[in-house]
UniProtKB/TrEMBL annotation:
It holds the Pfam family FdtA. This is Sugar 3,4-ketoisomerase QdtA cupin domain-containing protein. Residues 32-117 form the Sugar 3,4-ketoisomerase QdtA cupin domain.
Amino acid sequence: MEWHTHRFHEDARRRGFYDIIPDVPGEMNFTHMPSGVICGLHLHKQHTDYFAVAKGSILMRLLYEDGRPEEKFVVSEHTHQTIIIPPGVWHGYKALEPTVLVFYIDGKFNAADELRRPTKSEEWATEIK
């Protein structure tokens, strides 16, 4: 038996546990986010993200560099699917309720791999039908 100390970060937006499984090529992470928190649009030049909602729900946004229209969709604990976001796709999400997000990145975290894009809060509005 051995212990692995993973990275931990907490701020007003989220409480996160990062790189929780050692000796894998990427990072397995999970975060808890209060309702209304936005993880703004960002793009990875090299790595792929894999997202699954374990509890709660998020509004996910995808923007493409090649001119395809923006995608917005809700993912919840009832979706039972993993969202796979390849390199070069702008993406971000908003917690629609208290949410636990589980995600894997196929490489170790590298700040130089990530670009950020400013957005306005009204861009994260959800349509009620």
